[in-house]
Amino acid sequence: MTKSNMDLYLEYINKRGSCLSVFRAIADKYELKSGIYPGSYIHITPSLCLSEMYYVDSDKKAIAFFKHQNDIEAYLDKNKCYTTAFDFQFEGADFTKPLGAKRGYYDLMISLYSGFISLHCKDYLRKGGVLLANDSHGDATLAFYDPDYAFIGVLVESEKGIEISGDTLDRYFKMKSEKKVDLDKVKKQMKGPNYRNQVEYYLFQKKV
Ligand SMILES: C[S@@+](CC[C@H](N)C(=O)[O-])C[C@H]1O[C@@H](n2cnc3c(N)ncnc32)[C@H](O)[C@@H]1O
User: Fold this and answer.
1) Cα separation, 6 vs 22, whole angstroms
2) How confident is the model over 163-187, as pLDDT tens digits?
């Protein structure tokens, strides 16, 4: 039996986790409506919490997945957490090159396991917009040292679920020794340093 398009998505989130509670917590706290997700692959979960999403990926399987627009729309219609209509677009492109996305527009930019999105896609996030990044490829580290972003929070798991915390943020991005972070090495290796305290998700706000 051939797999349906949405089976591919369900299998994918079964393996990686959906992150639904992460996107929902951020969208609720900062009242976000639109987002851009460079390096999304087929991870369309943000559309369940944000009514307008722009996905970007150069992978052939992602391009094929997003061709099945009707399946994706039916899934979003059934599972979205908001009452308004949704709007999503996909661009099968390299996010290090100029994209068709709106500049200075999106409320949220998502950078998960895909490279230096804080750098290459900065222009698409609006001033005051939120960047959600992890440090698997060192993008949270890059954003931390980028003067155009302010480090505003982390997401932590508690018995109440996922919570956004802005407390004691000076504990993060500190090496185990007193060594300074070598940003050239982070860029070359595309890997975040091994910090004394680390979390899965970091939040930044675009200042300019
Ligand atoms: C490990 S997957 C992560 C997918 C998704 N962010 C997630 O967390 O489930 C990395 C994705 O980034 C995409 N990617 C990496 N570099 C890219 C680039 N320069 N332009 C477009 N897509 C890119 C890959 O094609 C791949 O689909």
Assistant:
1) 21
2) 999 999 999 999 998 889 999 999 9
